[in-house]
Amino acid sequence: MENRDLIEAKRGKEVESYHHMNIAVVDSKGDLLYHLGDPEHKIYARSSMKPLQAIPLVETGAADYYYFSDADLALCTASHNGEPMHTDRVISILKRAGLDDSYLRCGIHNPRWEDTYRKLILEGKEITSLYNNCSGKHSGMLVTAKYMGESTEKYYELEHPVQQRILSVISEVCDYPKSEIAIGVDGCGVPVHALPIKNLAYGFARMAKPNIFDDKRKYAVECITNAMVSAPEMVGGTNRFCTDFMRAGKGRFFGKAGAEGVYCIGDKETGLGIAVKVLDGNGRASSPAAVEVLAQLGLLNNNQLDQLKKWHYPKLFNTRDEVIGELNPIFQLNKTVNA
Amino acid sequence: MENRDLIEAKRGKEVESYHHMNIAVVDSKGDLLYHLGDPEHKIYARSSMKPLQAIPLVETGAADYYYFSDADLALCTASHNGEPMHTDRVISILKRAGLDDSYLRCGIHNPRWEDTYRKLILEGKEITSLYNNCSGKHSGMLVTAKYMGESTEKYYELEHPVQQRILSVISEVCDYPKSEIAIGVDGCGVPVHALPIKNLAYGFARMAKPNIFDDKRKYAVECITNAMVSAPEMVGGTNRFCTDFMRAGKGRFFGKAGAEGVYCIGDKETGLGIAVKVLDGNGRASSPAAVEVLAQLGLLNNNQLDQLKKWHYPKLFNTRDEVIGELNPIFQLNKTVNA
Description:
Number of strands of chain A: 12
Protein name (chains A, B): Asparaginase
CATH topology of chain A: Beta-lactamase
Order of helices and strands of chain A: EEEEHHHHHHHHEEHHHHEEEHHHEEE
Largest interface: A-B, 47 and 47 residues
Shape of chain A: globular
Oligomer: homodimer
Organism (chains A, B): Lentibacillus populi
CATH class of chain A: Alpha Beta
Structural class of chain A: alpha+beta
Largest sheet of chain A: 9 strands, antiparallel
Strand content of chain A: 15-25%
CATH architecture of chain A: 3-Layer(aba) Sandwich
């Protein structure tokens, strides 16, 4: 296999399938330092935008008004498992704003966390929006609307001030014209934003070194990234890459996955921002790609690489719990030659 | 997007992700008529080999000895949902051979059929191998071992006569040297076979026109393909492509999916065999690819295309049940120029 732009899914000795990625590594000055494939590729950022989507929650003053803790704020950036620690906190956040989970408009899916799902079945309870992996994000949006005296009914619509503020923040933080951001509908019903990969990386780079922003935004960004790295279990949950990654990162890295193979990282130490898009959309390739990029950039020590091994080279198991293959990143980042 | 070798996953107006395929269309003389990408690509055929894996079950005489009906035989080629119609029949098949589901070594996974899963939880029952989507295939293997007086303990091991017979059948039907077939371990613990895509297509073409085989094999192949098209609900189940496809095919087409984006079809009328491999392994692209190939070859009438529309252009839904995108095959098969 000549093509180096990929991750192999190996079964035994043979490569069974493979994934291509586009990757951008940008510094907080906005320079593209490394790339793979096409860093200009415009992609739906999906849930990787959740940390930015929480900026208005803090900037408006809503988060402080409702006594948001780090864990509360981290949950508002989450694609959570639906474990009790997540759903209990969603209820708590909404209650403080005089709301409850009936206000959530994120739709319904089986909780990611098996035990939660089993418990609901055993107790004959309905699966509600509370268990939706985006219920934290939606809670942040609802609480902001409530605080601002805006309607809590249609907060998910593009025209609603909550979504308009988010759109502006994404445009400003990622330094990409609002008119160029393509809007689609996300898995949970709110607008989803398409930007070039390098702009996503730049947004995360700026969030890693937020002095570039005015005081209000700097404060908001710091609250959010500090919350994510302080309460990583909120952002994903048990056995989730975001959580394990930020735990291993010990406060230095913040990261967020997006559906369809998106992963974004900010490094508070170097101010680097990284954005990965798996071109076929398969999320299984996101974590090997993300860890491999960090490894190639020399940003993880051996201990951290060890901790993240299961995400770097995910094993493929069969139903007899036998290891029958693995995902193996074999790509090489290109150092970008800037004109 | 210049590249025509693909299926687009569209969200709103933008292409979010895309899938590349390798495809071979071979006639029963063995000529490669059409292709996409690399038809020589050697791939793990995965469950698409299940119809061939059932040939020894009939050839040895086991199926007739144990009074196998069409539905029984179809189930032995299945990646079934684990609906009651499937699991009841697995029990019945095994019972006739003096066995029960404790003999199954296919490992455990949550039943694909949600209602079965919920029922097991509510009744406090364990999920056992019975519910594994391969339990029909494993039942066929067990029954054959029992009939032949072979061990029912290690029937899943490559060295066991059951697996050796299967390996020979695959080699002979697909006309590919046994020594060249790469062996890996399948999701359910038995050997899985890697052959070039064009040989998989050739195998299905020959099964579509089995006069090429000796009487014993011809009989076995006809029993199996007739069983699949007579009892398509056994091969997959409710809301499954294999089932819906063979229903629409009205006895003319037999088809079988394999994990990691594999799909194989035989057309009893033209004797054509088709094999599709989605290169990144995403099964969501299998059915759009399969239907699109048949459409381009002019093998489906408008009524059938209509019936299969949801598989041809699968809609993408969000958790609010809104349609937010679709999978859209935009590839064009190449007519193969034979030297």
